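Wed. Picked up where I left off yesterday with Protein tas-like. The coffee machine is broken again, so keeping this brief.
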Amino acid sequence: MSGRCSFFSPSSSDITSLSHSITPSLSLSLSLPTTKTLLRRRKTGSSFKPLVCAAINNPLQYRKLGDSDLNISEITLGTMTFGEQNTEKESHDILNYAFDNGINALDTAEAYDPIRNLIASGLTDCGGVSETETILEYELGLTQPYKIGFSNPLEDVFNGHVGLNSEYPIPMKKETQGKTDLYIASWLKSQSRDKIILATKVCGYSERASYLRDNADILRVDTANIKESVEKSLKRLGTDYIDLLQIHWPDRYVPLFGEYSYDSSKWRPSVPFVEQLQAFQELINEGKVRYIGVSNETSYGVMEFVHAAKVEGLPKIVSIQNSYSLVVRSRFEVDLVEVCHPKNCNIGLLSYSPLGGGSLTGKYIDINSAAAKRGRLNLFPGYMERYNKSIAREATIKYLELAEKHGLTPVQLALGFARDRPFMTSSIIGATSVEQLKEDIDAFTTTERPLPAEVFADIEAIFKRYKDPTIL
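Structure written out below (tokens, as returned):
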């Protein structure tokens, strides 16, 4: 296999091509290598033609996801903005463009809308609130009143797992709650379900999001929680099966979202791995779930799941959804890449935030720019702040300079890097407009594949200086 497993090789039989026409994008040259000239912001109707090579049109490629029979496109559409930043029509336009241009997978989660609603009224500007009380009464089955209190607007909603100062939630208005899955459901009605890889996620441990369940004080990844989550997801999505069900974050304590070191004092008893897999087995037997995966997981967790599956004859996880980008590399590359290797556990990587929450586009360098003001890092203060309140900002500027040096846009550099990693199965990319999505797809299909060796050499030089720049 000449040093690279056939699973990842562009010439592998596990990778096929889908021909489709991509309109050549317009080129735009930069003048001075100043901070402002590096801000090749996303603009409606604008994109860029790579200068490192002649015009290229490489269709999206497809890769087998772990041990499954799913051949997934190298881009998976992320849907987290549906219902808050995107209307139903906009969401459908984005979905249509994605699937018309070679994408065959979409990723959602039970957490995306209901959890974000926890801080919907009173905390959208992070101005502080002592207590928020809301009643959820809508078609998702959440009809019980719940009360949540915050002593600090940046207090973690999930007791160290997920909070305003991390990935989730994005604050939402009450009237938009629960719409991500509903928008997907209304779109699915006009689609061939068997042509779509539908992935969703069940919440991990949470003491503050128990309202998602009918009778639970704490969310756990146990049999009852898993089954209730799946039933409600199926109802919201208007389908009778899920292609890939993932555990959004572990039931046990693990460091997440910018927390780098494991804090042994936070250890707590957790649901046994075998019990979690047994619940998934029952759902698979019932035809409600096809395959299972994990997210925000560690090497220990992956190995325990794989071992339990092997010993007990239970379903094996086929994927891991972790953050990976130019500014978030070390955690996966240090040892998860070995664990997930096809010759070891054969776990497919579905990377999220390949653009660093949009920061790697450069639009947040000038915080007063129109693009920055429209971006989610500013719309939702505290959200993904590790990309701005760390040396990641400094590293981002270096990558912007590198992109300009090689005649690439920041998006082409960031997504080309993710695309060409030998361990990458699919990159999860969200977009708030068709124009953004077109730029992202073009970065995969019209940029030289792989990126030239000198580009990777320069990336590695920056990486040696900024190995973990997003750690707070």
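Quick read: The CA atoms of residues 33 and 405 lie 9 Å apart.
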